[in-house]
Amino acid sequence: MARSQIIYILFLLKVVILSFESVTVSASGSCPFKSIAESSERSNPLLGVDFCDIGPTKCEDSKYRSLDGSCNNLDNPQFGLSNYKYGRLLPPKYSDGINQPRLSVDGGPLPNARLISLSLFGELDVPDKNFTLINMQFGQVLTGDFTRIANGTASSKNVSKLSERYVPCCTQDGQYLERNPKLCYNLDIPPEDLLNVQAGNECMNFVRTLTDEETNCNYNGGPVEQLNAVTSYLDLSLLYGSTAETNRLLRTFNGGRLIVEERNGQTWLPKSPNTTQVCFVEDESDVCYTGGDISVNTSPGFSILVTMYLRQHNRLADELAKLNPHWCDEVLFQEARRILIAQIQHITYYELLPFFLGRENMLRNKLIYDVPPDSHVNDYNPQVDATTLNEFATGAFRHFHSQCEGRLDLVTEMRSVVGSLRLSDWFFRPEIIEAGDNFDLLSRGMGWQPQQLTDNNIDREVKHFLSRRNMTLGGDLRAIDTHRGRDHGLPTYNDFREFCGIKRATSWSDFEDFINVQSVEGLMNLYKSPEDVDFTVGGSLEHPVPGTLAGPTFLCILTEQFYRTRVGDRYFFETDNPKTGFTKDQLKEIRKSTIARIMCDNGNQIKTMQPKAFITVSNTNPIMPCDKLPTLDLSKWIDEVPINLK
C-alpha cells in the first residue's frame, strides 16, 4: 500500500474516532440536537449536497444557515446553492449559441488574450500610498468565499465523468496535448511573447469550466451555464466547507471546535490527505492544508488569513463553552460559526467595501446603513436572488488583480523590513508560513506594505510566473481573466456599458468618455470593432469613479452583486429576525469587529497594529498596542437555557 494511501486512511480513521466521540461527548454532556454534518435527511436544510440538484424539496426555518447554501431562501431553496449554476444579468454570448467561445463580429477569431495582456496592461511597480496589502488579500479570500469555478478539482461529483479533467490540456513546459476540445481552450503563445517563445513554450494550460450540460445539471438545451463550486453567500465556506461531507472532515465534534494540528506551539489547518495532488510539493510529508476549499493553499497571504479565521473560530468556541457550560458541541459550533461569519460580513461591508465601491455609493444604493451600533436593519427581500453573478465572478471583481504585489515583505514588531519572499516561489506551497517567525512577519507585512495601485498595471509575478511550480515561467493572470470571460460566454464591454446606462459605443472615440486615448488606440490596434472588446478588458481600462477603485461599468456590476449578496441573505448579520438575528447588545459587539483585531488575536505573537489595517500607517492611523483595539464582549452571549436549533 502506498504511503499516501496509508496517510489518507489514518486521517479518515481520526475523523471516524472523533465523530464517534461526538455521539457521547459534548462540552458538558449529551447533546439533544443532531449534527448538521451527520444528517442524512434530504429535507434537512442544514444538509450539504455535493451533486448538482435544485436543492431540498422541503425546508425548515432553521436558526442556522445550511452548509451548502440551500434553504437560505425558504421559497426558492436553490438560490445560492453550491455546485449549481451562476446567475447572469445578460444572456451569454457563444459563437454557436451553445458553448463555443465568442468570435469577432466578422466571424474571425478575437485577439489573443496573452497579446492583449502584453499590449494593454503594463508591469510598472506602483505602490498604493493609501492601502495596505491586507486590503488585497482580504479581498482575494472574500472572493473565494462565494465564487469558485467548478472544474477538475472543484467537485467530487460524477468522478468517472470528471476523471479526464485531471489531465492537463497543455504540459507543464508549455507543449500542446491532444485533448477533448470541449474541455480544453488553451492560451496560445503569440509570436510577440518573446519570453515564452524563447523558452520554447507553445501554450498556457487552460481547462474550461464545468457546465450544466456536461453534468446534466437541470440542462434543458440552449446556451450552457457554468457551475459555482461554493455557496453564493458570505458564509466562510472556504473555512467550513460547502457540503456536509467536507464539513465532517474538518470538525472535532467536541466543544464546537474545528480540527487543528499543533506544531512549534501553534495551531494550524489540518494536513491534506492528498498533499502532492493539492499542493506544489514532492513529498506527502510536506505541509499542505485541508480547509473548506483547496484554495486555502493558494498563496502565503491566503493561507495566513484562513488560518486566522480557523483560530478565531476555536477561540470563540472555547470562550462560549466557558460562558455556557450547558451548550453541547453542535450549539457551540453553530454559535461560533455564526459570530465569525457576522464579524467577516461586518468587516467586508463596513470596513473594506467602502474603499472599493465608495461609501456614498454604498449608502445611496442601500448596501450599508448609517445607524446606531445597536440598531438592526430589516432589508431582507426573498424576491432577491443572491446567487453569484457570472459577470461579477468572471469579470468585474477580477479587476482588482492589479492590486497583487509580487514581493512579500517580512516585517518585525518595530516595522523594520528584514527580508522578502518572491510570490511565485510559494504558490500552493504553504510551508513557508510555518518557517521560523514567518507567520507574524508576513502578517505584519500585509498590514504595513502597500498593495499595488488599482490601475492597468499587473505585477510580473502574476503576469509571467503564475503557478510556475519549478518552471522558469508560468501563467498570466490577466490573460487568464480575459480567456475565462470568453469561456463563460460573457457579453461584450459594449453590452455592459449599455446595461449600466452608459452610451453604447458606435465608434472607437466613444470609448474615450471613460478610457484614456492611448488605451483606446491600443484597443483599436487589437480588435476589429468596438463590438468585439471583452468585458474584462474594457472595464479594467476605465478611469475609476471618484471615491472608488473601479470605473463606472465595473462599479455598476459590483454594486449590483454586493446588494444581492446582502439583501438576498436571510441570515445577514444585521437582520432583526428574532430567530436568525442577534440581540441589540450582541449586534453592538459584532460591530466592533475590525481586520486589525482579527490579526492581533490570531497571530502567533503580534503585539501592535494600526486600528484601520486596510489603510497605510499615518499620524491619524498610528501603530498601537493590540490591547487598545476594540474587542468583542462575549458575555452578551450568556444563555441560561439550551438553544433550539430549529
Question: Mind explaining what this structure looks like?
Answer:
By secondary structure, the protein is mainly alpha-helical. Helix content is 33%, strand content 6%. It contains 21 helices and 12 strands. The protein has helices at residues 3-24, 113-120, 133-146, 159-162, 194-198, 212-215, 237-240, 244-248, 275-278, 300-323, 329-364, 390-393, 438-448, 460-463, 477-487, 493-499, 517-526, 535-541, 552-567, 584-590, 595-602, and strands spanning 84-85, 127-132, 187-188, 203-204, 227-228, 261-263, 266-268, 407-411, 417-422, 450-452, 608-609, 624-625. The strands form 6 sheets. A two-stranded antiparallel ribbon has the order 1-5. Strands 2-10 form a two-stranded antiparallel sheet. A two-stranded antiparallel sheet has the order 3-4. A hairpin with a 2-residue loop joins strand 6 and strand 7. The longest helix has 36 residues, at 329-364. The radius of gyration is 24 Å and the shape is globular.
Feature tags:
disordered N terminus; two-stranded antiparallel sheet; globular; 646 residues; 12 strands; 21 helices; mainly alpha; two-stranded antiparallel ribbon
Furnish the topology, listing elements before pairings.
Elements: H1 3-24, E1 84-85, H2 113-120, E2 127-132, H3 133-146, H4 159-162, E3 187-188, H5 194-198, E4 203-204, H6 212-215, E5 227-228, H7 237-240, H8 244-248, E6 261-263, E7 266-268, H9 275-278, H10 300-323, H11 329-364, H12 390-393, E8 407-411, E9 417-422, H13 438-448, E10 450-452, H14 460-463, H15 477-487, H16 493-499, H17 517-526, H18 535-541, H19 552-567, H20 584-590, H21 595-602, E11 608-609, E12 624-625
Antiparallel strand pairs: 1-5, 2-10, 3-4, 6-7, 8-9, 11-12
Helix pairs in contact: 2-15, 3-10, 3-13, 10-11, 10-13, 10-21, 16-18
